[in-house]
Protein: Cytochrome-c peroxidase
Organism: Hymenobacter cavernae
Amino acid sequence: MIAYSVRFRAVRRPFLLVLAILLFSFTVLRKTPAEQVKDYYDTHLSQLHKTLLQFQEISDQASLTALRASFTACRSEYKRLEFAVEYYYPNAAQRLNGAALPEAEPSEPEQVMPPTGFQVLEEYVYGSTDNQATRGLIGQELENMLYQVRYLQAQAPVLTFTETEVFDAIRLNLYRLATKGLSGFDSPVAFASLPEAAVTLEGTGEVLTCFEPPALLSQQVQRSVAAVHTPGTTVAGFNAFDRAAFLVRYFNPLLAALQQAQLQQGIPFVQAKRAIRPRAVSYFAADAFDPTFFAPADAAPATPAVLALGKALFQEPALSARSGRTCASCHIPGRAYTDGLKVNNSLLAGVNLERNTPTLLNASLQPAQFYDGRVPFLEDQIHEVVSNKAEMGGRFDEVTSVLRRKKGYTKLFAQAFATESKPLTERNIRKALAAYVRSLVRLNSRFDQYMRGDTAVLSRTEITGFNLFMGKAKCGTCHYMPLFNGTVAPLYNKVESEVLGVPTTRDTLHPSLDKDQGKYLLYQIAYQRYAFKTPTVRNAAHTAPYMHNGVYQSLEEVIDFYNKGGGIGLGLEVPTQTLGEDHLGLSALDKQAIIAFINSLTDEGEQ
């Protein structure tokens, strides 16, 4: 017995040593979660390249059914990669899946880049014309896309994922799915948004599997996939989808589970400064948006002293020299900081201002100001408005002199800019006013409360209106949720302008196109003729009249204009119109529901 034990121990030691070596080797060789995600990315990028090549091979002769099947296969592969391509290579993402609209740089207005990518390809594959010319365009577009994919493959060897970036990219992609995917933004012809959303969510689950996620997170992904899964890509299915229920029951819980998993696993949040705070549980959260993201580096902090000064200056007639006009003359707090006029009076005799007065509520949550987007910061806008002879007619050098003589301002400036030896300056006037306008963020409407869990606060009609807004009516493809303006989700770092074909008057029998050429006047870029920044529809119940020229007095008129297909739908010649010209087919009840939803976007509490 003793001899047996000795022999057993002698045999066991080498065995244990070998086992230890194997376990150590397995631990060393086992890939980290981030490395596993890189493998996932490389695999699907290779598969995307393969499916595009296969599509190209059959594009000339295959049946329309086969073409559409190939298109779907390619889009599905891209949707599994979109979180990473958009995160690391946004320019390539734009060329692969951007809107089917031209682009140009102000420095080279004549160098217009034609649109390219899946949305262009979708128009060919699902359009009404199928001939050799169209087949040639399909082949050409596939070559454009293969160029971008080959670029991504060339970059792949030097691309390194981190756990922090993966979670961040997934979160941003979920925002993209909810805002652009569910609205039909990137599948405007095929109406494949819901099946593609299911693929996006399935890919999200596969990526998260690399991190051995908590059961709750995996369950939320699976539930979300099931909620958007639909058999086929029909218009009826797209229109009938209950987006409000999906967001509250599945999307928000998924985001909450994602945040909780990241915290449990000790994965840091990115430190980047963004429009949506990276640590926000959802972009519907009350403090999700950071107004300082849109401010210049030297912006004044929103201290009580700075805001008190800014509020005083907002109501100060000295800014407009002898006219007596103040900022509050045109931006009236009780009217959601608008004036209720079609266009306000000019200080120049015998004329009016050219454009309608926009709301200042949430005006800070956009990267460009004015209807034509000609300045980036509120400080620039304030300088231009105050010094404009038609609007305020002030001169900053004179304003500072007047304010020094007025009781109280020397003290207000000293308190607001306590570290400066000469606080009452032109620069600080602009900074204080801008800080005050940035304080006018209002994201506490009944809609916001609904999205934060109080599902009893909206009526069935209002919920129906939201679903129409984000679906059949296509409003959400330009007024991006949850800000409902033209600031593009999910980074909100650029703002879009649209050509709507707005008429001069309300006369629908003899309409004429408004002569204001909008953004075109800045750089003379042809496709921007009659383009204007997409404003917010938040608080629109209090901001009539509407459009850049104030032509429509009611939301009913605005919705009727869109329902008819904009200017082209009215019979006007608008070759650059970006608004779809087809009738939307909205019923009277549909229109009433959309208006009810827009009314639910009125912010509650102090204006």
Q: What stands out?
A: The longest strand covers residues 108-113. DSSP finds 23 helices and four strands in the chain. The beta strands are 103-105, 108-113, 497-499, 531-533. The radius of gyration is 28 Å.
